[in-house]
Task: structure prediction
Amino acid sequence: MFSWFGMVSFVPYTKVHEFAVWLKEGRLMGSVCKGCGHTTFPPRADCPECLSAEFAYKEWSGRGKLYSLTTIAAAPTGFEEHAPYRIGLVELEEGGRLLAWLGESLPAAEATVGAPVQVVPRILGEREELRVLYSIERPGTTWGRSPFAAG
Amino acid sequence: MRRVGVIGAGHGRFGRRSDATVQELAFEAYRRELADAKLTRREIDASVIAAVPEYHKQRSVAGVVQEYLNLNPAPTWLTEVACASGSAAIRTAWMAIASGLHDVVAVIGCQKMTELSTAEILALMGRVGEVQWESVFGTTFPAYYALFATRHMHEHGTTHEQMLLTAVKNHHYGAKNPKAMFQKPISLEKALASEPVASPFCVYDCCANADGAVCLILAAEERARSLSEHVVWLDGLGAATASISVLRRPDLTSIPSASQAAEQAYRMAGVSAKQVQVAEVHDCFTIAELMAYEDLGFCKKGEGGRYIEEKRAYIGGETAVNVDGGLKAKGHPIGATGVSMAYEIVSQLRGEAGERQVPDASVGLTHNVGGIGQYCFVHVFRRE
Ligand SMILES: [Zn+2]
Result:
């Protein structure tokens, strides 16, 4: 199921594969360690603090601040048709960071370091296979399908 | 532990070398190195090969190089830590000698990057980052450093022009280095007008893939003194790591493994940043050189832009940085780069750097970063 996650997939298997299922339901999940309560985003199965392998999913709000960004013009394999595309790094309100594309609700003038943003789960339906991901949008943006106006 | 010194060094030409295999490239540098050290191959106890395997069609390159250089049956092994593989090999050779296991060790950094097709390179380029959470969004190597650059601009007011001034400097010196891939000076205007890659970077912010090989011979103090009159001592070694993922880097204006490795190397050698007269730093992207000035303590955090603007990284300034052209003008054959850095410092400390010579250089440093800082090695070299 984790092969659903991202614009392309390099890692179809992981102990946190249910992350992609939650994302398909519109929920952004981090993890909480059952041993010591340590929370992480992205989720991880194995606690880096107490080394426990017992964890539960915990929902993140997706609210955060843009920490850094860049517009990629020279794209790698599989992304050529999308270039140029904007990538942002978000510092999440509940902790942790996330890297994703900036969505269309966020014009260039508003996409600045420190700007408040909303991470929104997405399904790319137009492709042959199911793809679930998230994008970085203007605060208040709610879950919708196919954010990138696929063409 | 025994003191370890460099007694021989050889550097092949960097660039697009569609005329030679990786072992043939290694041979070019190795032949020069042996001649330089006035050694015969039977005096070499072991070799450490630095290369990044995924660029080579030939698998397990260490054995192939060892055979081609006619070094069998001496032992050999590979070190791989991405772009810092060369410095890892030097550290490994130092450990082998200091421990007493070997007396004379050859370090051979060799890489062919251009035997892959553009499609294969682009596919590799899409997997340089953390592949589970980051590469799936189409990140690239320049894009990661661009995230650092954006943040450095935001926190310290650094400008894109200041970043590109490092490229102008490095091409200025690269024009005087016959081993460099690019031997022409560039202007700031030309650099600014180059094609966009990942904002704020354009083509001239980025180093180029290259083929090439460099060799060094290291020896234990007693052997080194008996074999060479101008030993360059490797007196300070530092190494550290940091997360490969940008999601877990608390700060994107510096490379934490670099400042930690530098601190270790300075302490071990008993020198301070201000005493370093000549440095080779890992300028894979322009912002990386500015961060290196800061992480190595050549200037305060946030002042990297001013450091280059005031020409303090030029010969005649404070610490002369990348006066062989750096990765930017020399090209970046990733396995060979760290050894190339050491080669330049050895030449400088021997006073053999010609028109790029830093006057009276006696303390030099190399700063070799793997990836976006998941690995960093800093070495301090000295002459007596
Ligand atoms: Zn725990």
In short: Residues A 33, 35-36, 38, 47, 49-50, 52 surround zinc ion (CB under 6 Å).
